[in-house]
Amino acid sequence: MKLLLCGYGASNKRVAALAKERGHEIVGVLLLRGQSADGYPVYRPDERLPEADAVIDFSHPVLTKALLAADTGLPLVIATTGEKEVLIEQMKEKADRQPIFFSANMSYGVHILTEIVRYATSLLPAFDIEMTERHHRKKVDAPSGTLIKLYDAIASARPSVHPVHDRSQTEGARTDEEIGIHAVRGGTITGDHEVLFAGHDETITIAHHAQSKDIFASGALNVAERLIHKENGYYTYDNLGIGDS
């Protein structure tokens, strides 16, 4: 594939390295300002772009919105976190003109984790639920897009719940409807997500620990390799077909 990268942070730098190993070519990087990108040609999303098969976007909402506003017509693999509802609405509006894939976490393992958490929630109606995510000290959004994805899975199985982000601002004991949300930032933690189900005299913890950013970069490339053969539409791990035998 000939690939354009939207954004050039740590994740897309790994995409570039792994893409080369797989025999793909990075034909440019999309940025809003005149930043450099390790020698790759830099473009704004709204200018004439080189021939490409797909765009992989690990950036931020401002740049992703600019990408969606541009009429590239290319398959888009979007992994930006932040302003989720706004971005999904824009993606779905554009999906009749190009195939667009979105996931807040490009790890297929996290997709499976989400399904496990959804199922566990339905099986454990009397258990309290607390959620914790841990990331490196430079991550700017909290809670993470992945934790929000996991929370949405819980809420789909237990619609009465609501998030509690700061217990110091609450009074009295927790209620059955509360889901405690905890964000930790420090060091170089790639990404840990844990969902605690706490019942009477027993607890169950379901967790995913990312050991390097390569799982996200590799996941994005796997999606792109499949997305370029898809019809126009809005895709997630639920309907793309990755994992099918």
From TrEMBL:
Q: What does the record list as GO biological process?
A: diaminopimelate biosynthetic process; lysine biosynthetic process via diaminopimelate
Question: Which pathway is this protein assigned to?
Answer: Amino-acid biosynthesis; L-lysine biosynthesis via DAP pathway; (S)-tetrahydrodipicolinate from L-aspartate: step 4/4
What's its job? Catalyzes the conversion of 4-hydroxy-tetrahydrodipicolinate (HTPA) to tetrahydrodipicolinate.
Q: Which reaction does it catalyse?
A: (S)-2,3,4,5-tetrahydrodipicolinate + NAD(+) + H2O = (2S,4S)-4-hydroxy-2,3,4,5-tetrahydrodipicolinate + NADH + H(+); (S)-2,3,4,5-tetrahydrodipicolinate + NADP(+) + H2O = (2S,4S)-4-hydroxy-2,3,4,5-tetrahydrodipicolinate + NADPH + H(+)
EC number(s) reported in the record: 1.17.1.8
**Oligomeric and partner information:** Homotetramer.
Binding site residues for NADP(+): 44
Q: Which residues bind NAD(+) per the record?
A: 38, 79-81, 103-106
Name listed for the protein in its UniProt record: 4-hydroxy-tetrahydrodipicolinate reductase
- Which Pfam family, any one, appears in the UniProt record? DapB_N
* Cellular localization per UniProt: Cytoplasm
Domain of life the protein comes from = Bacteria
- What GO cellular component is one of the record's annotations? cytosol
Which residues does the record give as (S)-2,3,4,5-tetrahydrodipicolinate binding sites? 136, 145-146
The record's annotation in InterPro entries points to: DapB_C, DapB_N, DHDPR_bac, NAD(P)-bd_dom_sf
Q: Where is the Dihydrodipicolinate reductase C-terminal domain?
A: 109-239
GO molecular function annotation? 4-hydroxy-tetrahydrodipicolinate reductase; NAD binding; NADP binding; oxidoreductase activity, acting on CH or CH2 groups, NAD or NADP as acceptor
Chain ranges of the Dihydrodipicolinate reductase N-terminal domain = 5-106
Alphabetical UniProt keywords:
Amino-acid biosynthesis, Cytoplasm, Diaminopimelate biosynthesis, Lysine biosynthesis, NAD, NADP, Oxidoreductase
Record: active site: 135 (proton donor/acceptor), 139 (proton donor)
State the gene name recorded for this protein. dapB
> Per the UniProt entry, what species is this protein from, by scientific name?
Bhargavaea ginsengi
**Belongs to which family?**
Belongs to the DapB family.
